[in-house]
Design brief:
4 strands; four-stranded antiparallel beta sheet; binds adenosine-3',5'-cyclic-monophosphate; Alpha-Beta Plaits; alpha+beta; globular
């Protein structure tokens, strides 16, 4: 178990002006933000990031959505980070997410669910490595 996980504040949440409120909720939730950057997904990046969903009926729409505008990508730290972060963001479908969770507050639909959280320590590292080098994270730690 590691104490880091990877997150994306998705295009719908950035476009709606909710990124600041979401970052606030992450910090209020007891997480330390140790890397954060505004970026865009290219189609290649989105297809690679969501490769496990390739072939599913929602795959093409998911890639369209994730490339539709800027996103924030970040690494956050907390004890038992993967599980605790998933608790903070709530169920994949905002309509089924617990009251007060980030997806319940800012998600618009199953696809446009405002935020991503990695589902395992192994995937967290694979995912943040697509956006950050170890140096980016270490530098952020000492700020
Ligand atoms: P996330 O869990 O961050 O990563 C996979 C994403 O695919 C998920 O968030 C949703 O945005 C999207 N997704 C998952 N299941 C569906 C579905 N049945 N229909 C549309 N989008 C989905």
């Amino acid at each position: 178990m590691t104490n880091r996980t990877f997150t994306i504040i998705k295009p719908n949440a950035v476009a709606a002006g909710n990124a600041g409120k979401i970052i606030d909720a992450i910090i209020e939730g007891g997480f330390r933000v140790i890397a954060l950057r505004l970026t865009y997904f290219s189609r290649n990046q989105a297809e690679r990031f969501y490769a496990v969903h390739k072939g599913k009926p929602f795959f093409n729409e998911l890639v369209d959505f994730m490339t539709s505008g800027p996103v924030y990508v970040g690494v956050v730290e907390h004890e038992n980070a993967v599980a605790e972060f998933r608790r903070l963001i709530g169920a994949t479908d905002p309509a089924k997410a617990d009251e007060g969770t980030i997806r319940r507050r800012f998600g618009e639909s199953l696809q446009c669910n405002a935020i991503h959280g990695s589902d395992s320590d192994e995937n967290a590292r694979i995912e943040w490595s697509q956006f950050f080098s170890d140096d980016d994270i270490i530098i952020a730690e000492y700020r």
